[in-house]
């Protein structure tokens, strides 16, 4: 709410969001930058712009980045993370042994099991980066790992 | 470099979706196999691998040639009148067949590891009957999975992945549609996959039989469970368990070592199989089935080979080249010192059996046929190294759900290393010649 106070409150939709409130929320989560609000750059709002910079400036310098850690000590390569990951499920084709990701991995596949250990292929298709709304809160791989080897973190 | 789809022989699940990248000499990468499977492929170059035959001379193990080792083995077997053959759970079915033929020739007693593992369930099923199922059915149809005394997340790592999380033909949502119930006295790693609808029952150790009897009684006369509960499980949980059991469309009970290895195992297994039959009779729309969890990859194979050859699935005693009736098992045989030499194939009984039995086993000459160093090697008189089935030689193996799978050869074995089948054939030929 503090952030919303300093926005233009005109709902001009120039930033691509329907309302200034939505923009404020996204600003808080770090999805958008202050500079995305073009009217704010005008001289009229110079004071507000500076205050906003001050409010979230400390966090803006080092943007929080999603990281999925797989503990090699704990992982035993059961491949549950490979099967449960909803991104995998979207693209994989049905096989005889159930509908599970195939090898060699597809380009969307997040995890693969190599040499008895789980390996992170590419994080950019993860639901926590790519998806919208509630899907963004996905923690399936972390919650179903029986050995608690997968950890989702923001650093 | 070629990517080859192969069957992993790390455990009894025999995953057929493992990919290995090989240049024909070594295996470079392994995709899809768990840690247990990877260790099996690593055995090729491991320092634990047996590559030379050994014979014992003046109490010391000495390196020798394969012909000399076989010669000494034949000498030991010819001198003995009551040989014992044991192991056969990590070799192909062809080698098991040769093993039974060898036992027939030398009038020996042959038994597999299965007798101290899932073979007990098959023995009990002769009286009660058994409903078996397959892994594919578990993936595509099952909606209730009960793990009774089994920590599958650590013993057979990929089983949960396959039966619980895979999205099957009639169970498209995968995990969401399947309920799991874990009955175990301790909290194991398998509890980590539990969701909201799943039930964890902490049964008191050694009291499974009371729990099964209470369920059987409740099946016949409702509301017969005492309000204090049974075996540390309260009444509501028991009722929920029974509702799940009787209302499931396709339920599977996985019997683990917690049941098979309990002190009164034969009674518990019989009662459990009876409970399954009872539920199946009362059920309208579905059925319950049983799946046995074994450790070694071809444990079921021996039962099938022996059953198809001789009509008896374990503890085969031969006399005058014919099968004779006996109530002995490998345990009673060793305990009564009723043997004078032993042939161990692909097993490590010195470290698996209790100290009292291993001491007795070690006191007699041991002929070992195996591909890795083990505690048994330290007591063996003759040791013949063998190729790794499923990697260096092919063969047939039975999965834990009694489905036969053909294992393929990926790379060539090292020089002068033969498969278990060939070594047993050589022994057979040598003994036949006299």
Please describe what this structure looks like.
The complex is a heterodimer of chains A (about 160) and B (about 425). The mean pLDDT of chain A is about 80. Chain A has seven helices and four strands. In chain A, the strands form two sheets. Chain A has a two-stranded antiparallel sheet. Chain A has about 160 residues and is of the alpha+beta class. In chain B, helix 2 (about 65-80) packs across helix 16. Chain B is globular and about 70 Å long. Chain B has two domains: about 50-115 and about 295-434, 3-Layer(aba) Sandwich (Rossmann fold), CATH 3.40.50; about 120-290, Dimethylsulfoxide Reductase, domain 2 (3-Layer(aba) Sandwich), CATH 3.40.228. Chain B has helices at about 35-40, 65-80, 95-105, 120-130, 135-140, 150-155, 155-165, 210-220, 235-245, 255-260, 265-280, 300-310, 330-335, 350, 355-365, 420-434; strands spanning about 1-5, 20, 25-30, 55, 60-65, 85, 110, 145-150, 180-185, 200, 250-255, 285-290, 315-320, 320-325, 340-345, 365-370, 380-385, 395-400, 405. Chain B contains 16 helices and 19 strands. The mean pLDDT of chain B is about 90. In chain B, the strands form four sheets. A nine-stranded mixed β-sheet of chain B has the order 5-4-17-16-15-6-7-13-14. In chain B, strands 10-9-8-11-12 form a five-stranded parallel β-sheet. The interface of A and B includes residues 84 and 145 of A.
Write the layout of secondary structure elements.
The complex is a heterodimer of chains A (about 160) and B (about 425).
Chain A: H1 2-5, H2 20-29, H3 46-61, E1 66-70, H4 80-84, H5 86-91, E2 111-114, E3 117-120, H6 127-130, H7 140-144, E4 150-154
Antiparallel strand pairs in A: 1-4, 2-3
Chain B: E1 2-6, E2 18-22, E3 27-31, H1 35-42, E4 54-57, E5 60-63, H2 66-79, E6 83-87, H3 93-105, E7 109-112, H4 119-128, H5 135-140, E8 144-148, H6 152-155, H7 157-165, E9 179-183, E10 199-201, H8 208-220, H9 235-247, E11 250-255, H10 257-260, H11 265-282, E12 287-292, H12 299-310, E13 316-319, E14 322-324, H13 330-335, E15 341-345, H14 349-352, H15 355-363, E16 366-370, E17 382-385, E18 395-398, E19 404-407, H16 420-433
Parallel strand pairs in B: 6-7, 6-15, 8-9, 8-11, 9-10, 11-12, 15-16, 16-17
Antiparallel strand pairs in B: 1-2, 2-3, 4-5, 4-17, 7-13, 13-14, 18-19
């Amino acid at each position: 709410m503090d952030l919303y106070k300093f926005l233009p409150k005109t709902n001009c939709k120039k930033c691509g969001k329907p309302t200034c409130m939505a923009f404020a929320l996204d600003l808080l989560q770090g999805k958008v930058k202050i500079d995305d609000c073009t009217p704010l750059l005008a001289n009229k709002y110079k004071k507000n712009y500076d205050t906003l910079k001050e409010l979230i400036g400390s966090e803006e310098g080092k943007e929080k980045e999603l990281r999925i850690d797989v503990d090699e000590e704990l992982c035993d390569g059961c491949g549950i993370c490979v099967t449960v990951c909803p991104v995998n499920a979207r693209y994989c084709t049905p096989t005889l042994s159930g509908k599970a990701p195939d090898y060699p991995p597809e380009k969307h596949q997040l995890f693969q099991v190599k040499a008895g250990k789980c390996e992170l292929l590419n994080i950019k298709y993860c639901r926590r980066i790519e998806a919208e709304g509630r899907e963004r809160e996905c923690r399936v791989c972390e919650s179903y790992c029986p050995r608690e080897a997968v950890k989702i973190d923001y650093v | 470099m070629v990517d080859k789809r192969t069957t992993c022989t790390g455990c009894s699940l025999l995953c057929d979706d493992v990919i290995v990248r090989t240049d024909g000499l070594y295996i470079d990468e392994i995709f899809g196999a768990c840690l247990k499977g990877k260790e099996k492929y690593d055995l090729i170059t491991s320092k634990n691998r047996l590559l030379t035959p050994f014979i014992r001379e003046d109490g010391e193990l000495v390196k020798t040639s394969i012909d000399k080792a076989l010669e000494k083995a034949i000498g030991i077997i010819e001198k003995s009148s009551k040989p014992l053959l044991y192991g056969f759970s990590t070799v192909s079915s062809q080698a098991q067949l040769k093993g039974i033929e060898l036992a027939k020739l030398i009038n020996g007693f042959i038994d597999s590891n299965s007798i101290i593992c899932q073979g007990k369930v098959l023995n009990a099923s002769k009286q009660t009957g058994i409903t078996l199922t397959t892994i594919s059915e578990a993936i595509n149809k099952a909606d209730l999975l009960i793990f009774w005394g089994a920590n599958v997340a650590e013993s057979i790592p990929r089983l949960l992945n396959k039966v619980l999380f895979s999205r099957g033909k009639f169970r498209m949502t995968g995990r969401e549609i399947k309920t799991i119930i874990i009955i175990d006295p301790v909290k194991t790693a398998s509890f980590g996959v539990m969701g909201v609808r799943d039930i964890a029952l902490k049964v008191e150790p050694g009291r499974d039989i009371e729990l099964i009897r209470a369920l059987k009684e409740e099946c016949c006369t409702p509301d017969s469970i005492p309000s204090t509960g049974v075996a540390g499980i309260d009444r509501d949980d028991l009722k929920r368990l029974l509702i799940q059991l009787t209302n499931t469309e396709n339920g599977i009970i996985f019997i683990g070592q917690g049941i098979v290895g309990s002190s009164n195992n034969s009674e518990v297994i019989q009662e459990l199989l009876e409970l399954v039959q009872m539920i199946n009779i009362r059920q309208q729309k579905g059925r319950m089935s049983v799946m046995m969890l074994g450790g070694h990859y071809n444990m079921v194979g021996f039962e099938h080979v022996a059953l198809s050859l001789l009509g008896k699935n374990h503890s085969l005693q031969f006399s005058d080249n014919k099968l004779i009736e006996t109530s002995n098992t490998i345990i009673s045989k060793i305990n009564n010192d009723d043997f004078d030499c032993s042939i161990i194939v692909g097993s490590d009984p010195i470290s698996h059996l209790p100290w009292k039995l291993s001491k007795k086993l070690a006191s007699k000459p041991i002929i070992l046929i195996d591909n890795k160093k083990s505690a048994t090697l330290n007591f063996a008189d003759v040791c013949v190294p063998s190729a790794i089935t499923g990697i260096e030689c092919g063969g047939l193996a039975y999965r834990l759900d009694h489905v036969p799978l053909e294992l393929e050869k990926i790379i060539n074995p090292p020089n002068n290393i033969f498969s278990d089948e060939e070594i047993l054939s050589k022994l057979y030929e040598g003994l036949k010649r006299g």
